[in-house]
Design a protein that fits this description.
alpha/beta; D-Maltodextrin-Binding Protein, domain 2; 2 domains; five-stranded mixed beta sheet; four-stranded mixed beta sheet; 13 strands; 51% helix; globular; binds beta-D-galactopyranose
């Protein structure tokens, strides 16, 4: 309720904080935020943009980013661009920017001091090509979280886990209570994300950097990674063999309703718990870094603005970028989204216990690493996703074989 009041107050603050425009300009905005929590966050953006005198034309695309991104990119390449679009931090718009199809925001970014405001600096670097800035980072989402159902553990009559190891040990008792230990959505990006969290949790941030950032073959193919691949193989037993869940938020709903004990998912899952009226530490809890060591990756979202030959649209695109970076919107949007703000100079006193855990981790740069989408091309990411989802669903596939294929993909990444 506290967050709801905060959001209402913020909406009022936002409406006065953004200079209105003379005439309302329609901007069609594409994104893949269609779950309950995501829609609540979109509403903050839309209301703030409209309060400034323009008109947010919502272009939500159902399905995951893997469905939406090809649609978005083909529209831009095909000469039918939207006014603004969500993409992830990193290299997803690389070719569009190189083709000169995306609006240069450098002048606005310099006027508003984004480079001094945004942390970590990798978020602005991910928007920058040849010294020019082409996107506005709007949040920090990290996949490095596990969400547990405290209700499920009460039902099973055991303590909720503090770490991944506790969780694995608790699985038999959950099963006895008719509860699926691990809720999993069967889309490639989710399996790949889940592997990255288990790799980070069990291998630590140094090994993550050696493998994903440095792409060091000794690390990629070493004993520790072999152990991690075996643990990931074993984790297949924690899912349901007949699992038919696809969407990430349907898997989150299994945790919300106590049908599953836990889910490894990015912190956008928080929006779902909030919309369900659940409170961190009461009905659910959160284990960043699987509760083993503090770690976050700086995934998340940025908005890009396709070049349109219309001065009024260009001006409205820049008003939208400025709105998204503004203090009031950064607080209101991120509280609703379950993500962390890109700027440190905002008051997040309304943040819940889980977000506060994330902010504390974010304060120490040693705990932070770029997300896979910032490090790898869309093509390499797609290869990893296909391998991981195949492995997860094919018990006959040996960990050693998948490990070898995984290492090769990263060694050969562009
Ligand atoms: C991610 C995005 C998040 C979240 C998630 C699930 O790519 O960064 O904002 O919405 O997809 O849709």
């Amino acid at each position: 309720m506290k967050i709801k009041n905060t959001l209402t107050a913020l909406a009022a603050a936002i409406s006065f904080s953004i200079a209105g425009s003379a005439t309302a300009t329609d901007i069609e905005v594409t994104h893949w935020w269609t779950s309950g929590g995501e829609a609540a966050a979109v509403k903050v953006f839309a209301e703030a943009f409209n309060a400034g005198g323009d008109n947010w034309v919502d272009g939500a695309i159902a399905g995951s980013g893997g469905v939406a991104r090809p649609i978005i990119i083909s529209r831009i390449l095909g000469g039918k661009p939207m006014g603004a679009t969500q993409l992830n931090h990193g290299r997803q718009a690389e070719e569009l920017v190189e083709e000169g199809l995306m609006l240069d925001l450098t002048e606005l970014a310099e006027k508003e001091g984004w480079k001094d405001l945004v942390r970590p600096s990798s978020l602005i670097e991910s928007c920058t090509l040849d010294g020019k800035i082409y996107c506005v980072p709007v949040n920090i989402h990290s996949f490095q979280w596990m969400w547990t159902s405290l209700d499920a553990y009460k039902k099973a009559g055991i303590d909720a886990p503090e770490t991944w190891h506790d969780f694995v040990a608790s699985a038999p008792k959950l099963r006895e209570a008719g509860i699926t230990p691990l809720a999993v959505g069967n889309q490639p990006w989710q399996t790949n994300g889940m592997f990255g969290v288990i790799q980070m949790g069990l291998g630590g941030i140094d090994l993550y950097r050696q493998t994903m950032v440095d792409r060091n073959s000794d690390a990629l193919r070493g004993e520790k990674m072999a152990e991690i691949w075996q643990a990931f193989s074993d984790a297949r037993e924690l899912d349901d063999p007949e699992n038919s869940i696809q969407n990430w938020n349907d898997a989150t709903n299994q945790v919300i309703t106590g049908k599953a004990g836990a889910q490894i998912m990015g912190d956008w899952a928080q929006g779902e718990f909030q919309v369900a009226g659940q409170t961190a530490g009461t009905e659910y809890d959160c284990l960043p870094g699987l509760g083993i060591a503090p770690a976050l990756d700086t995934g998340g979202d940025a908005f890009y603005f396709p070049v349109v030959d219309d001065e009024e649209v260009t001006a409205a695109q820049k008003r939208m970028a400025s709105m998204m970076m503004s203090k009031a919107v950064q607080v209101g949007f991120n509280l609703a989204k379950g993500s962390l703000p890109v700027r440190a100079d905002v008051d997040l006193s309304a943040a819940n216990g889980c977000m506060k855990k994330g902010l504390a981790i974010l304060d120490n740069p040693d705990n932070i690493v770029s997300a896979g989408v910032q490090l790898l091309s869309a093509d390499t990411t797609g290869q990893l996703e296909d391998l991981l989802v195949e492995f997860w669903n094919d018990p006959s596939m040996a960990a050693a074989d998948a490990h070898d294929a995984w290492a090769t993909i990263i060694e050969e990444a562009d």
